[in-house]
């Protein structure tokens, strides 16, 4: 355990992994709340164009990727706000255009796809000191608004119209979310890689949703899961000689798989009150009145039969039927 | 507007807190609202009635600036909508949809109602937390603060959305079909909550499909039909008009199904 900390390249790798594990699920919580789980994946494709551009011009890849990815993210969000990104076709063209442009530019630069692959799948052990400094700056840049503006961002993601009636600058916050996501994607390209970064944004959040209740608890729990799998994956890859990015994502999915039975156990204990809406149409048609035959048993709360809220009353589930009390008898519902 | 100003105009009709003048709205190129002129005066409880597709919800959304108007003007508290900034005076209760809020806790949802008061990067103050617990108590859900929204019944979710709007102690409360999908018993609870607010001087604009238990606290009804105002007056007139139409057979259709009034039309 201590052995791996003696290698400077592993120290840098572990810090980079830790920062990625902290940031990706933080912004991922908002992305998932807005039901844009695949946004990170798309932005990863756009970032490839930035890496290609850096290879072509001989500049540093992370800054170039940040700029290209942020510009792409803002274009996506503006198209969405103007209602022009209908049918996802515009987004698809932007995303695959980014991938194609990146591959082309990398080829012209003479590196081919091989030069790209360390960004596509991550190359944690080649993180340099200056890379790490940049990653740390970007991480702070993402983390401060992601946590400091959590109430505002939550309101905008959960109920955009209500947020607008609160006088919040909803457009600005929406742009902020995609820009933060774009920075996160580029920040993570050295650790998990551009093709797998979206997993680290989404999977810890999905696991956290199974483990805890409430938005803020989910945010914190997702960040804890993210750090655990990122650092665990980086460490594991050292000993198992495996690809760190892939191992991190596999670990995250393993945590999600484990969280599933836990959530089932927890929801049992919570006895989820299922509510069946009463289907009453505008044309005043009443449901047929069918009485249960010969019913000596009296249903009460805790009588052993599971109950379900049905419109304004309670139905008891009895041998595959739903029984509702009506005057001195039970109706079949 | 300060409280003193409100009473200063007590001689004439109270000033409108919400006024629309010749408002026209198109959605997807189709005219949905045509030349709507209406107002809610200070302390008044106004119901916005009409059948499906009459434009009730569109009107409410246009009044709050959520959708743009093609023509006409809206004023909130005497300020044109475009330059209106005092959003903490307005409480909005949108149509219930659990989509984005399903995984959130009740207290988190209600706390987001305080954002008009809060500054970015500043944590919630003791006053903010007090406002949240007061609002939850007002709707009788103080013991469900830590429950997840998805685990509440429709009526309880509706009360959470009302509590969220109440955290600002708004002077104008706008509710979009708060009784839709809520059983009769919980509609009664909602009516009690709203009646207390109206008693306390809050102006209310409520979109309703049928009056139901809320009918008792309504001062005036605005009835929409195909995007136009077909009635604007007190409920008594509305009932009288309805009976006149029946007596004389002059009008083919009544302005409003009487079921709206006694609540026999249900959704």
From the 3D structure, determine the CATH topology of the largest domain in chain A: ABC transporter involved in vitamin B12 uptake, BtuC
The SS-based structural class of chain B is alpha/beta
First-to-last CA distance of chain A: 62 Å
Question: What is the residue-mean pLDDT of chain A, rounded to a whole number?
Answer: 86
| Physical arrangement of strands within the biggest beta sheet of chain A | 1-2-3-4-5
Quote the CATH topology of the domain at 3-96 and 174-262 in chain B: Rossmann fold
Question: On the 0-100 scale, what is the average pLDDT of chain B?
Answer: 84
**CATH class of the largest domain in chain A, anyone?**
Mainly Alpha
SSE succession of chain A = HHHHHHHHHHHHEEEEE
Descriptive terms for the model:
A: 333 residues, alpha+beta, ABC transporter involved in vitamin B12 uptake, BtuC, B: 267 residues, alpha/beta, four-stranded antiparallel beta sheet, 10 strands, 24% strand, disordered C terminus
Short description:
The complex is a heterodimer of chains A (333) and B (267). By secondary structure, chain A is an alpha+beta fold.
What does this structure look like?
The complex is a heterodimer of chains A (333) and B (267). Chain A has 333 residues and is an alpha+beta fold. In chain A, helix 1 runs parallel beside helix 6 (129-148), helix 2 (39-57) packs antiparallel against helix 10 and helix 10 (197-211) packs across helix 11. Chain A folds into two domains: 3-201, ABC transporter involved in vitamin B12 uptake, BtuC (Orthogonal Bundle), CATH 1.10.3470; 275-332, no CATH class. In chain A, a hairpin with a 2-residue loop joins strand 4 (321-326) and strand 5 (329-332). Chain A has helices at 8-33, 39-57, 61-81, 89-108, 112-120, 129-148, 150-158, 160-165, 170-187, 197-211, 215-240, 244-270, and strands at residues 275-276, 307-310, 313-318, 321-326, 329-332. Chain A has a five-stranded mixed beta sheet, with no helix packed on it. The termini of chain A are far apart. With 267 residues, chain B is α/β, with parallel strands linked by helices. Chain B contains eight helices and ten strands. Chain B has helices spanning 3-8, 56-63, 106-111, 126-138, 154-166, 184-199, 235-248, 259-262; strands at residues 16-27, 30-41, 45-49, 71-76, 79-80, 90-93, 172-176, 203-207, 220-225, 228-233. In chain B, the strands form two sheets. Chain B has a six-stranded mixed beta sheet with strand order 6-7-8-3-9-10, sandwiched between helices. A four-stranded antiparallel beta sheet of chain B has the order 2-1-4-5, with helices on one face. Classes of the chains: A alpha+beta (333), B alpha/beta (267).
């Amino acid at each position: 355990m201590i052995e791996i900390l003696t290698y400077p390249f592993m120290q840098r790798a572990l810090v980079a992994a830790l920062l990625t594990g902290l940031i990706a699920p933080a912004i991922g919580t908002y992305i998932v709340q807005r039901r844009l789980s695949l946004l990170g994946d798309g932005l990863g494709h756009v970032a490839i164009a930035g890496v290609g551009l850096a290879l072509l011009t001989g500049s540093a890849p992370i800054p170039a990727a940040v700029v290209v990815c942020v510009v792409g993210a803002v274009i996506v969000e503006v198209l969405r706000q103007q209602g022009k990104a209908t049918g996802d076709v515009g987004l698809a063209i932007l995303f695959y255009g980014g991938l194609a442009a990146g591959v082309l530019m990398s080829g012209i630069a003479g590196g081919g796809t091989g030069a790209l692959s360390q960004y596509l799948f991550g190359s944690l052990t080649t993180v340099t000191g200056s890379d790490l400094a940049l990653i740390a700056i970007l991480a702070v840049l993402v983390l401060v608004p992601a946590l400091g503006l959590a109430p505002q961002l939550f309101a905008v993601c959960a109920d955009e119209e209500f947020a607008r009636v609160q006088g919040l600058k909803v457009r600005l916050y929406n742009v902020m979310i995609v820009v933060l996501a774009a920075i996160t994607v580029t920040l993570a390209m050295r650790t998990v890689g551009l093709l797998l970064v979206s997993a680290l944004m989404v999977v810890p959040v999905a696991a956290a949703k199974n483990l805890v209740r409430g938005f803020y608890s989910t945010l914190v729990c997702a960040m804890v899961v993210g750090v655990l799998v990122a650092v665990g994956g980086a460490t594991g890859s050292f000993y198992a000689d495996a690809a760190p990015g892939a191992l991190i994502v596999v670990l995250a999915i393993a945590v999600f798989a484990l969280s599933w039975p836990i959530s089932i156990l927890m929801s049992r204990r919570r006895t989820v009150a299922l509510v069946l809406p009463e289907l009453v149409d505008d044309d005043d048609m009443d449901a047929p009145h069918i009485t249960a035959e010969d019913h000596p048993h009296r249903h009460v709360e805790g009588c052993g039969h599971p109950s379900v809220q049905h419109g304004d009353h309670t139905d008891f589930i009895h041998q595959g039927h739903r029984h509702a009390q009506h005057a001195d008898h039970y109706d079949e519902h | 507007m300060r409280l003193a100003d409100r009473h200063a105009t007590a001689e004439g009709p109270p000033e409108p807190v919400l006024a629309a003048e010749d408002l026209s709205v198109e959605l997807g190129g189709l005219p949905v609202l045509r030349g709507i002129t209406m107002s809610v005066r200070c302390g008044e409880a106004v119901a916005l009635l009409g059948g499906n597709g009459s434009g009730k919800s569109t009107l409410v959304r246009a009044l709050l600036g959520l959708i743009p108007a093609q023509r006409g003007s809206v004023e909130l508290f005497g300020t044109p909508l475009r330059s209106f900034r005092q959003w903490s005076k307005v409480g909005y209760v949108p149509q219930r949809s659990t989509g984005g809020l399903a995984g959130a806790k009740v207290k988190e949802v209600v706390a987001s109602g305080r954002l008009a008061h809060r500054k970015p990067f500043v944590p919630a103050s003791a006053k903010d937390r007090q406002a949240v617990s007061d609002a939850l108590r007002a709707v009788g859900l103080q013991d469900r603060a830590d429950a997840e929204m998805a685990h509440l019944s429709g009526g309880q979710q509706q009360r959470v959305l009302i509590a969220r709007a109440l955290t600002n102690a708004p002077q104008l409360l706008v509710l979009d079909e708060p009784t839709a999908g809520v059983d009769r018993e919980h509609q009664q609870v909602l009516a009690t909550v709203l009646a207390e607010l109206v008693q306390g001087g809050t102006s209310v604009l409520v979109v309703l499909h049928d009056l139901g238990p809320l009918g008792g606290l309504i001062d005036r009804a605005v009835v929409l039909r195909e995007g136009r105002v077909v009635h604007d007056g007190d409920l008594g007139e509305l009932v009288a008009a309805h009976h006149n139409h029946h007596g004389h057979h002059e009008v083919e259709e009544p302005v409003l199904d009487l079921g709206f009034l006694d609540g026999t039309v249900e959704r």
